[in-house]
């Protein structure tokens, strides 16, 4: 896979110098920078096995978040959240809490969306959420990431009311339904996880029997 390594600071500096020479062209400079960033991103991925290039195409919500640098006006944020919430699907049996043991597998499964829909070694393998890459889960796990908040004792601290269960399920399924420009992957919305897997994850986070809450 071809990777084009371009320093963001170099790009920003060059565009900044250009715009500094003509202060009235700030908007044009920013547009040029956005276009250059998109071009660089696309050139770093080439078609072929294991590449899911449609990930590079932004949908409406992503475009708005890019436009407003992750801080859209309240009215725009509310519009994004309302539309994203309409995209949430639920398990056929209506149960938002599934099997926490299966949820543990999803939480700690590492395929997620790193290489898209294709897993070369086993195309039929079930993708996990790769959640521990950003969140602390069970206390015994020491290799977790910290981009997202710790989820240790998640259910122990919040309880299992209907409101908490629904919030947890929907946040996992489509984080933008609650935070318009959330960096968390929309695990259900993009088909990375099925509604059942999201329900299993919800149980893993909330069930009193789950190691998360011990």
pLDDT < 50 runs, ≥5 residues:
1-21, 115-120
Helix count?
Answer: 8
Helix/strand-derived category reads mainly alpha
> What is the element string, with H for helices and E for strands?
HHHHHHHH
Give a short account of the largest sheet. none
Distance linking N and C termini: 43 Å
Share in helix: 40-55%
Number of strands: 0
Give the percentage of residues in beta strands. Answer: under 5%
Rounded to the nearest angstrom, the radius of gyration is 20 Å
Q: What would the principal axes of the Cα set say about the shape? A: globular
Average pLDDT score: 83
Overview of this protein structure:
There is one protein chain. Helix content is 42%, strand content 0%. With 214 residues, the chain is mainly alpha-helical. The radius of gyration is 20 Å and the shape is globular.
What's the quick description here?
The chain contains eight helices and no strands. The protein has 214 residues and is mainly α.
């Amino acid at each position: 896979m071809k990777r084009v390594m371009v320093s963001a600071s170099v790009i920003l500096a060059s565009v900044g110098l250009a715009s500094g020479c003509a202060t009235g062209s700030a908007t044009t400079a920013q547009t040029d920078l956005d276009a250059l960033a998109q071009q660089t991103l696309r050139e770093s991925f080439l078609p072929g096995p294991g590449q899911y290039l449609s990930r590079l195409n932004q949908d409406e919500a992503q475009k708005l978040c890019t436009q407003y640098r992750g801080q859209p006006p309240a009215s725009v944020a509310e519009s994004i959240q309302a539309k994203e919430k309409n995209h949430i699907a639920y398990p056929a049996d209506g149960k938002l809490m599934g099997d926490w043991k299966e949820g543990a597998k999803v939480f700690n499964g590492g395929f997620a969306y790193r290489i898209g829909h294709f897993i070369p070694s086993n195309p039929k393998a079930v993708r996990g959420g790769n959640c521990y890459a950003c969140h602390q889960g069970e206390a015994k796990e020491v290799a977790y990431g910290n981009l997202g908040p710790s989820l240790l004792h998640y259910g122990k601290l919040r309880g299992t009311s209907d409101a908490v269960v629904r919030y947890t399920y929907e946040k996992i399924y489509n984080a933008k339904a609650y935070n318009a420009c959330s960096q968390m992957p929309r695990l259900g919305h993009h088909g990375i996880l099925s509604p059942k897997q999201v329900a299993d994850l919800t149980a893993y986070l909330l069930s009193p029997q789950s190691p998360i809450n011990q």
